[in-house]
Design the sequence.
């Protein structure tokens, strides 16, 4: 049986499942600079992380007893995955567990930035009693989602889950992926049952940018560090486009984004992720055209339970139970 360090935590359901299988689980958070020492001194064989803990080559080399590295979530850019696997370490994430929660956050942001709810929520408590008519005029030029085109960049599990919600709201979906394919999107409607909608993906991101009223990104951080949306991509978009990024910081060039907002090319933006987490730049946080959340895409009670149980299943299937 294994000693497991869940350094960024694990759900009670996941911890219980692992302990029931005979494994030992610690949820103590160890600072990054102390992690190697603690893993070796406590003889941890498995390390579970989310986005806060970084697992690079130096840690992998310094901790020869590690047999498993688990990422509670989708993106694994905080782990040197191939290097670890070449060392014989099993590395796994939980791609299915948080898709719905991220998609729902994006939908919340889409509704928010289409009606400037994020800014209204800030100003009404402070100024609503005295400037009600002024604020009513300021926020009275919103747009509707139904009938609009949503461009989704990256059409994996999260992109497809988002498409199901958007289609249910009456939006048109243009999905960009590496290959052109036809994807069946299930929609479950209470009282009706499950129906299927077909989305044909495209590799032509330029055409999608030109056609979309809203854009949402669902791609990993690029290996070369380049942005998926930069100045040239903003130039191709409709005037007044609205954008959501709940993928990774760095997939949008933040300087180019601010310039596009200033010029009016971009009407509103929602950001759940930032280049410099956990210290995002202040001019993003205070811009009244930008809605912000602190990287909470997968942070629902239901998603965390699913993530913990999925990690437990992976560990038990690979390393057994008592």
Sequence:
């Amino acid at each position: 049986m294994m000693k497991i360090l869940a350094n960024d935590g694990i759900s009670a359901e996941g911890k219980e499942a692992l302990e029931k299988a005979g494994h030992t689980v610690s949820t103590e958070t160890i600072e990054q600079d102390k992690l190697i020492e603690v893993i070796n001194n406590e003889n941890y064989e498995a390390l579970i992380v989310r986005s806060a803990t970084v697992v690079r080559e130096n840690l992998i080399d310094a901790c020869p007893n590690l047999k498993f590295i688990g990422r509670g979530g989708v993106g694994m850019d905080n782990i040197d995955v191939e290097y670890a696997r070449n060392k014989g370490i099993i590395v796994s994430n939980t791609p299915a567990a948080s898709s719905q929660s991220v998609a729902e956050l994006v939908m919340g942001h889409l509704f928010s930035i289409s009606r400037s709810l994020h800014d209204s929520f800030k100003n009404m408590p402070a100024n609503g009693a005295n400037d009600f008519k002024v604020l009513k005029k300021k926020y009275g030029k919103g747009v509707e989602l139904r009938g609009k085109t949503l461009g989704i960049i990256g059409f994996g599990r999260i992109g497809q889950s988002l498409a199901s919600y958007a289609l249910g709201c009456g939006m048109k979906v243009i999905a960009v992926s590496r290959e052109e394919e036809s994807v069946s999107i299930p929609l479950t409607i209470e009282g009706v049952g499950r129906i299927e909608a077909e989305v044909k993906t495209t590799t032509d991101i330029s055409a999608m940018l030109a056609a979309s009223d809203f854009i949402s990104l669902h791609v990993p951080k690029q290996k070369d560090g380049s942005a998926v949306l930069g100045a040239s991509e903003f130039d191709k978009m409709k005037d007044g486009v609205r954008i959501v990024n709940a993928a990774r910081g760095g997939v949008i060039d933040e300087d180019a984004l601010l310039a596009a907002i200033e010029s009016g090319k971009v009407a509103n933006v929602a950001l759940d992720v930032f280049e410099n987490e956990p210290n995002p730049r202040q001019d993003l946080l205070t811009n009244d055209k930008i809605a912000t959340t602190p990287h909470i895409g997968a942070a629902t009670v239901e998603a965390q339970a699913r993530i913990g149980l999925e990690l437990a299943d992976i560990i038990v299937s690979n390393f057994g139970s008592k």
DSSP finds 13 helices and 13 strands in the chain. The two ends are 7 Å apart (CA to CA). Residues 99-292 form a domain with the Rossmann fold fold (CATH 3.40.50.720).
